[in-house]
């Protein structure tokens, strides 16, 4: 309140300046008049009387100056004065301005760019109104609370009916469609969602309407809502799209609405009502989890704790009602933002925080540099400031002056930084791993980012101007007065301060360099990881066969057989195979592996026997190029009529057959017959058959290069459980004799000759898939390396600046030394010794700090410990070399000092 | 950081102004005249100090100013003691007496 009033009166003072000036003039004129009259009464001539009065009054302007300072209005005036002065200094010292503004721009720009990412990804990813009320709901095993699974649709429907904590509860499940009717079939990413999702997310459609309960029944006429992007790309944004028909998986859907651009729920292109699929296995089973997610909007007066309590009760009730499937299953509720963090043990979150920390250090280094530059620039002003301090200008007044003088510089740096951030963000957007951020996240420089930029700009002003002001604390004014009368003689306190700043810069950049070094080593290690298969000359195509067209496993089998025959016949194809669960594809399933003779009495005993289930058609082992260690690969003789076989990987052999010879042994991938309950398995599967192990292959990496391979078993498609749910998605592996990219169109033609309506979900070389899998690490390592390099550069510039200043300050002394016979070597040594002392102290501090700080990024490192000595050693050797260069240039200048000139100058 | 002697000087002038105004409202010129009269022409207040002092005291809230008409029918700014100013004058008078007494004692012992 007090400040508000003060600002008001001062502003008022500024606005009413003319009135106050006028009053002062009037008052003084009156005084002069009275004095003149008195003088005349004493017998002076009128002109003489007036002159005497004026002389006696003294300097009107000076009195008014003093009065203005006292009367308010003075604050705003000196404020403008200081700002003007700061701006004038910028124009006068153009070189200084360029270097300082560029330095600040680098720091501010890097911070703005990284903050924009953090803001969009971590802080405010959701565009929905009151997004903090939106919760993500899942099921979890009460006995193993860490394992969250998505909810089954049947359970979801019961939750929805019984709960009272949420205004709306909505389910969603990813579903891919093939869109036909155009020139080429198109693969569309869609989601089936409850109609409640729309009122829940509170974003009205851009065009048309959204689903209602009437659209959500099994027998409702089929409707679809489009995303803005899909509408733009497929329908060129035509407004008459409403009412048109789309052929999705050979079914006609009527377009009823288009959502606004920011609505990207579930990250898909189109949405269809979940209820249309209420009859499918995944919708009717309580046991069969199928990626159905649930979101709910809390009622305004309900807390998350209350909602959790209610849902736990409901879950317990369902467990009683359906003990076979729901026993020991609870409901889990977390805010939407935390759901994503849980889904992937989010190292990306950590990476972003690490980068935020890194750019924070870069900014501090930039500030230290600019503070150093300011000290050097204002060295001549030490005297002025000291005199002002001695004359009674309060310390607050001096600080304010320094603050305001550096504000124009900071604003210039901030503006340039904003431009840098804009182009930097373009680069970042190319590197950012989209899979790890919410679909809704919109990485742009928005109002929040601008506010942040302004904030750090003011912060840099504060740091840059207050650091030099340290010299004026502790009554140093008098010392300043004494020493500053002979520029270059003393200024020891400022030299010490500058030294301390450089030490700090060196230390901070060493920390960043070590961090970057660790990440680079980890990244290099990842790239050298043995994949376990041959990624060269391998083309991969993900296919999803629509369940409407291929509702029998036999139809799928027929397609795979025909397609494979044709692809293999294509010139340039060496071998080919279909595989569900191929490396670096998103398909795949896992089941318990049990051995003949083992007896299991409940499902829990199977939980640590999970084994990846790789369903193949054709010779996938040789198409992948995975070396066979023992036994044989699949042949054309392995059919639905022959003895079922399996090939296991080394990890599975080690785990399930320790110190045994696995070949010829019988295994089952699935559940033992005694544990299978009605309704537990998808349609078409009654029980699992025994498979004879015929071969052992090398392990291969699955999705993440840094993750040890899991146990896996390969099974021929004809002998696998006959469920279309698993068999309908598959990756075609094509090993080629030439550039795999050149084969794409030929292979596409072959597939379309079998099924002209089949869209390709993803076409890529295996090399590209492996490259893409490293996107998070590449993002992090590249940016961290960039910031560390920036820090090194700034620290080197800082060191160079301090030494140049020192040489200039000590010209006289160096001149005397040279006159007394000091050799060039001695002068070089003098300067370099000083610089290297600062460097080594800073490095020592930095290396010790790094030893403690790198622990923070240990989760980002693969195969490298946070205290791995290599980066520490490299930095300890490399940094002094850079520092030496930064020291050598000013040192050489020192040797060029002409003793005669230096001495005469004094 | 004002040195002790300037503080004394400034404080003294402030006290004299307050004292002059304690007898009734005056304009700036009048204040100078009144102080001169009261000190039997011993103290002559410089205009260069008087006006800054007036503005300063006004900001302290010890005096207020308003425009009025002078004895010779001219528009002039009149200063008036406020209640706070009267209290301040009392404090300053006491301080001054103590200080003056001390100075006198010092001079006598010498």
Strand arrangement, major sheet of chain B: 1-3-2
Largest sheet: number of strands, sense, barrel closure of chain A? 6 strands, mixed, barrel
- Number of structurally distinct domains of chain A: 4
* Overall CATH architecture of chain B: Orthogonal Bundle
| Beta strand % of chain A | 15-25%
**Whole-number tally of structural domains of chain B:** 1
Task: Please provide the count of β strands of chain A.
Answer: 22
Strand order of the largest sheet of chain A: 3-4-9-6-8-7
Tally of contiguous helical segments of chain B: 4
Can you walk through the features of this model?
The complex is a heterodimer of chains A (906) and B (110). Chain A has 30 helices and 22 strands. Chain A is of the alpha+beta class and 906 residues long. The two termini of chain A are 55 Å apart. About 2% of the residues of chain A have low confidence. Chain B is α+β, with helices and mostly antiparallel strands. Chain B has one domain: Winged helix-like DNA-binding domain superfamily/Winged helix DNA-binding domain (Arc Repressor Mutant, subunit A). Chain B contains 4 helices and 3 strands. Chain B has a 3-stranded antiparallel beta sheet with strand order 1-3-2. The radius of gyration of chain B is 15 Å and the shape is globular. The interface between A and B is medium-sized, with 25 and 19 residues.
Features of the shown structure:
heterodimer, A: 906 residues, alpha+beta, 6-stranded mixed β-barrel, 30 helices, 22 strands, 15% strand, elongated, B: 110 residues, Arc Repressor Mutant, subunit A, 3-stranded antiparallel sheet, 4 helices, 3 strands, 64% helix, globular, disordered N terminus
Q: Layout of SSEs?
A:
The complex is a heterodimer of chains A (906) and B (110).
Chain A: H1 2-15, H2 17-41, H3 46-57, H4 60-70, H5 74-92, H6 94-123, E1 134-141, E2 148-149, H7 153-162, E3 166-180, E4 186-193, H8 197-201, E5 207-208, E6 223-226, H9 228-235, E7 245-248, E8 251-258, E9 270-273, H10 281-284, E10 292-298, H11 304-321, H12 323-326, E11 329-335, H13 336-343, H14 347-377, H15 382-390, H16 395-431, H17 447-469, H18 476-484, H19 492-527, E12 538-544, H20 553-569, E13 573-580, E14 589-595, E15 610-618, H21 620-624, E16 628-631, E17 645-649, H22 650-656, E18 666-669, E19 691-697, E20 712-716, H23 724-727, E21 729-736, H24 744-754, E22 760-765, H25 766-773, H26 775-809, H27 811-819, H28 824-853, H29 869-895, H30 899-904
Chain B: H1 4-21, E1 26-27, H2 28-38, H3 47-60, E2 63-69, E3 75-81, H4 83-109
Antiparallel strand pairs in B: 1-3, 2-3
